[in-house]
Amino acid sequence: MPHRAFDKIEVRCPQLGGPVNFGYCRTLRNGLPCSRALVCFELKFPVARYFQLVLREETFRDCFAEAFPGRYELFLQRVTEAKEDAREG
Amino acid sequence: MAVKKVFLGEEFMPRQWYNLNADFPSPMPPPLHPGTGKPPTPEDFAPIFPMNLVEQEMTGERWVSIPDEVLGIYKIWRPSPLYRADRLEQALGCPVKIFFKHEGVSPPGSHKPNTAVPQAYYNKIFGVKRITTETGAGQWGSALAFACQLFGLECKVFMVRISFEQKPYRRLMMMTWGADCVPSPTDTTEAGRKILAKDPNSPGSLGIAISEALEMAVQREDTRYSLGSVLNHVMLHQTVIGLEAKKQLEALGVYPDVVIGCAGGGSNFAGTAFPFIADKISGREVRIVATEPTSCPTMTRGPYAYDFGDTNQTTPLLPMYTLGHDFIPAPIHAGGLRYHGMSPMVSHGVKTGLIEAQAVDQIATFEAGITFARTEGFIPAPETNHAIATVIAEARRAKEEGKEKVILFNWSGHGLVDLAAYDAYLSGRLTSYSLPDDEIERALKAIEGLPKIA
Description:
The complex is a heterodimer.
Chain A: E1 10-13, E2 18-21, H1 22-25, H2 37-41, H3 47-54, H4 57-64, H5 71-88
Antiparallel strand pairs in A: 1-2
Chain B: E1 5-6, E2 16-18, H1 42-45, H2 51-58, E3 63-65, H3 68-74, E4 82-84, H4 86-92, E5 96-102, H5 113-126, E6 130-135, H6 139-150, E7 154-160, H7 161-166, H8 168-176, E8 180-184, H9 190-198, H10 206-219, E9 223-225, H11 232-238, H12 240-252, E10 258-262, H13 267-281, E11 287-293, H14 344-351, E12 356-360, H15 362-376, H16 382-401, E13 405-411, H17 419-426, H18 437-447
Parallel strand pairs in B: 5-13, 6-7, 6-9, 7-8, 10-11, 10-13, 11-12
Antiparallel strand pairs in B: 1-4, 2-3, 4-5
């Protein structure tokens, strides 16, 4: 599949502290890319151009916009979700 | 003979952690809960953290006492030595004095137990029996496993599966310290089961592992969760590094011109730098530099940001995008740390100009790490190499400027359990380009015109 052409390219993930390939990173968040994908793969191939080809404009923005929630904020969100799931369960 | 290292007697160990939140010239805007749009309250953090840690998370007090029980454990490796990197200085031939705090002397081999130990303590006295967490490469998981063992707590670590398989030694460290380390996603949580139902071979992610760890903490009265970075109480605990460094440098009669640390989630950088930022706020001249771990260096042309605030602008500003093969890595620039991975306190420091943010490319970091190992002997963790690369750049700048400088940096951890990364560098697998240009173009052309996938 053409979209998988770059899947085997590897970088060292700064968050996991080990090698990961593009196939992992481009689908990390429920099929959408990790927000760092542009930064991490920029030296490897024209990754921004790739994502502009495969993602709709609004999806591209949602994935990579600087307004993406910070890690602290994401943590708060996950805590709330965990508590809500526990109440429903 | 010049002094090589400064030891600080146990009797001089800091007895309090320092809270930079008390001294920011402008108050740090609180992070906002994405769901409510409001700052978090203590209730938001319960029952994830014990209330004693929630209080620390939210305190505005400048100093927080370090409990004797924590000091007793810290003494296993603290105070950590301050080294003079005179052999590196000689190799560089620059007018600098380089000092580093050696945080690799802790049993887990990094700065992480500086917060793992107090977190385990506060959980213990709160009556918690078990702590859960997630880990990628295992540095945090192993530090927490170590700390929990010393306080008689159970430790459950959800390790991202891809890392669980890549990093056997870190999980063996956790198991040696008595932790239950499992590859996430697991079938022991609802969060894990949902992922496995869609993909039984899921390699996992930090997000999934966090969800699993939180789920377990929320569902069990005797269990809480622990995080190794980003949060305010973690930054607080880590200031033991910088507070010791100040005393050690004072003993030598020197004060740094530049304080450098690598900033991923921000904890080792904050620990080293925050006590010096306090001096900066009081008028002392000192530059504070945070180096972001990124695979991509940037040029000095302008902010490195994906700016969609301008509705006419539909593509991000990527000064690197068109450089192609002729790119010559420029030393270091970043318009700001990618705030979505960073501690709010560190981000605020950057935004208010107290902290300079820089980025170094991956190849330069390993070159720096090798230089350090071949001069000073110690093999740094790959993350630590980012700080070392910045130190080397600062040293060269000092030479160009004809100015003597004193540089302090945090040697945040050793790389002895991460030699696979050095193997990748030494065998040439970390080169910038992995596909020839024509092959890249062909691949992209094949995608053009296809329906978008999302």
